[in-house]
Design a protein that fits this description.
The chain is 32% helix and 25% strand. By secondary structure, it is an alpha/beta fold.
Length: 450
């Protein structure tokens, strides 16, 4: 693997690495490059902006959810056809899963990819001290190659000169200096930025503003030169066709999309297609179930902010309830779990599950190791997986149910023989038998197999 690549990182969250990464992707694309965009970690929102900037699917690289042995192959797969790749980091450069020595951190991924790192530093509240920050990050782990710095939120020419003077003794080149820009403000809410799928015009405007800022403040030729200095990596290219068995017939697997259900990984669809499904995306705010639906995947998103509109699509709610009662296989993650409840914040949902959903004031966030608590069409009892939770809602059970998972804090989720609904998001590249089982159940439901 010799594709030019750079990891865009920062000392901490809030330094502006998303703005810089998105701006670089868009500016490089406008300069004639075919750019592949990636995000370290389980984030769903940033890859949506990457897709706007690059015109290609946004993808995630996450050793915790994918397994570190899959990171380079998945990168090679996502970068096919591109001549340059930009990988946006997560949190601070060396911040990984809690209780580990930086496992699944941006630094971890940069080493797996043998990719150079460009550090984005918020210089708004410091001068020469920025040099000490850069020097400390360079020295902390010498296996991480920091090849440049981009100074963000610089206030004036005098301020810039002072910061540059502080960085100069480190020997790390300053590749760009960005000034504060109010055009970069995009709507945010309780779980971060509003997804690009919900505000396409605003997202496009924010991406263009970021690109304009980068074009004016970053030496793009120097950035590309840094990317071309990436070391060679020997790896297989991940191929969904080798991960799952294919069979005759193409059952329709309906995948919820639109503004509400925007949280899903690009590889999810690729795995479903590879195993023989005809994947049809539909918008639960306005659409009915696709014709001949034989299985349903309900991913994550923000149903709590669209509960009234979801409830207003009475035809779909009744269709889903009727089809599931007739045996339609369903995997629901987070938003999907809430949609299958009887109601969400007082608004009627599908009523498939004996539970009600509601918004809370607390955030549930983090990686989870889970054990399947109940056998379903998709998971054998006792199956161990790694997943991720990210929500401010909860569900109240109306009656005793078969739970989906054993977690360190107790049980979670609701299952039926052909329904698996929980808050846990999985990256199916690490569990390719799950999409294969969903499609196999779809074939049975469609009468293609016994």
């Amino acid at each position: 693997m010799v594709i030019p690549r750079v990891v865009v990182a920062a000392p901490a969250s809030g330094a502006g690495k998303t703005t810089v990464a998105v701006g670089l992707m868009a500016a490089l694309r406008q300069a004639g490059h075919t750019v592949a965009g990636f995000k370290v970690g389980p984030d769903y929102i940033d890859p949506g902006f990457h897709a706007v900037a690059t015109g290609r699917p946004g993808r995630n690289l996450d050793p915790m959810l994918q397994g570190e042995e899959r990171v380079a192959p998945l990168f090679a797969h996502g970068a096919e056809g591109a001549d340059l790749a930009v990988v946006e980091g997560v949190m601070g450069l060396y911040d990984g899963a809690l209780g580990t020595e930086g496992y699944a951190s941006t630094a971890h991924v940069s080493k797996l990819l043998k990719a150079p790192v460009v550090l984005v530093v918020d210089a708004s509240a410091a001068g020469r001290s920025v040099g000490a920050v850069v020097n400390g990050f360079v020295a902390f782990d010498t296996e991480v190659r920091i090849v440049g710095v981009i100074l963000n939120k610089v206030g004036s020419d005098r301020h810039e000169a002072e910061v540059r003077a502080g960085v100069a003794p480190t020997g790390v080149p300053v590749l760009g200096v960005l000034r504060r820009d109010t055009r970069l403000t995009v709507p945010s809410r309780h779980l971060g930025l509003v997804p690009a799928d919900e505000q396409r015009e605003q997202a496009a405007a924010a991406v263009e503003a970021a690109a304009d800022l980068v074009r004016k403040g970053v030496d793009l030729e120097a950035f590309v030169a840094a990317a071309r200095a990436a070391m060679e990596v020997h790896t297989e290219v991940w191929d969904p066709a080798t991960e799952v068995p294919a069979a005759e017939g193409r059952p329709v697997v309906a995948v919820a999309g639109g503004p509400v259900f925007s949280f899903r990984y690009t590889e999810t669809t690729e795995l479903l297609v590879a195993t023989g499904a005809d994947v049809v995306t539909f918008d639960p705010l306005s659409d009915p179930l696709p014709e001949a639906t034989s299985a349903l995947y309900l991913g994550g998103g923000f149903p709590e902010l669209h509960a009234e509109a979801l409830s207003a699509n009475v035809k779909l709610r009744r269709q889903v309830a009727t089809e599931i009662a007739a045996g339609l296989p369903v995997i629901a993650e987070c938003a999907g779990l809430l949609y299958l409840c009887r109601e969400l914040d007082g608004h009627p949902m599908t009523g498939v599950l004996a539970a009600t959903g509601r918004m809370t004031g607390s955030l549930t966030l983090g990686y989870r190791t889970a054990i399947a608590a109940t056998a379903t069409a998709f998971f054998d009892e006792g199956r161990r997986v790694r997943g991720h939770e990210f929500h401010r809602t909860t569900i109240d059970l109306d009656t005793e149910v078969d739970p989906a998972w054993y977690l360190p804090g107790g049980v979670e989720g609701v299952t039926q023989p052909r329904v698996h609904a929980s808050y846990l998001h999985l990256h199916w590249t690490a569990t390719p038998d799950v999409p294969a089982r969903l499609v196999a159940a779809a074939r049975i439901h469609a009468g293609m197999e016994k």
